[in-house]
Amino acid sequence: MAEVKLRALVLREVDFGDWDRYLTVLAEDGRKVEILCKNARRGKKTNPAARQLCFSEFILAERGEKYALREADLVHSFFVLAEDIERYALACYLCELTSALSDPGLESPALCRLLLTALLALERKKRDPALVKAAFELRVMAESGYAPDLTSCGVCGEVIENPPVCFSVRAGTAADAKCAGRVGGYAQLVDSTLRAMLHALTAEPNKVYAFALSGPAREQFCGMAEEYVKYHLGREFESLRFYRSLQMPMK
């Protein structure tokens, strides 16, 4: 039985049997790994480093591409997010989305960096959570092969040199106003929305969330990012539904 060491963020935990627990973790290299934690819920066997929203150093026993936990040492926990139910729900959604886009056999270090910096931004409360969410959605989709094309017109293929610029969530492309009006299905972007999209798609991972947006541009940017995820992945997310339920006005 081989021994494997890795640093990873715990995306999800699921209790199994009477005492065991399965962890889904995102390794630093972007691989998704499933870990069996034997007796994780039995008295002194509980390890706080092997819980959801913990970035930890793991020592695993590997047998036939299956992993069992031997040790876990905490590097950083995001437990403080649980003190704010909306931020915690958002963090769970970001983890669920990342899990959906990651793969056991595919390395993508950017996924881990993007998620860790997003969780840090939520933890430090210096960024608008809605903008963190939208920027993460666009960038993580781009890093996973679903990048929108904002550089040229998706209809005529020419470089878009002058505003206004339009965008189609379904096509994943931009278009100039003339072409957009001719084919339909495109929405005109507010100038600052376009700048925010370009920033989210091209900035260094630790600077993706370093911007501000307000008014109609903020609403458009956040709405388009969420719809882009839903349409191109063709699925809903339970954690996103819960997050949205927390934002509904009380009757």
UniProtKB/TrEMBL annotation:
<keyword id="KW-0234">DNA repair</keyword>
<comment type="function">
    <text>Involved in DNA repair and RecF pathway recombination.</text>
</comment>
<comment type="similarity">
    <text>Belongs to the RecO family.</text>
</comment>
<dbReference type="InterPro" id="IPR003717">
    <property type="entry name" value="RecO"/>
</dbReference>
<keyword id="KW-0233">DNA recombination</keyword>
<dbReference type="InterPro" id="IPR022572">
    <property type="entry name" value="DNA_rep/recomb_RecO_N"/>
</dbReference>
<dbReference type="Pfam" id="PF11967">
    <property type="entry name" value="RecO_N"/>
</dbReference>
<dbReference type="Pfam" id="PF02565">
    <property type="entry name" value="RecO_C"/>
</dbReference>
<keyword id="KW-0227">DNA damage</keyword>
<dbReference type="InterPro" id="IPR042242">
    <property type="entry name" value="RecO_C"/>
</dbReference>
<dbReference type="InterPro" id="IPR012340">
    <property type="entry name" value="NA-bd_OB-fold"/>
</dbReference>
<feature type="domain" description="DNA replication/recombination mediator RecO N-terminal">
    <location>
        <begin position="1"/>
        <end position="78"/>
    </location>
</feature>
<protein>
    <recommendedName>
        <fullName>DNA repair protein RecO</fullName>
    </recommendedName>
</protein>
<dbReference type="InterPro" id="IPR037278">
    <property type="entry name" value="ARFGAP/RecO"/>
</dbReference>
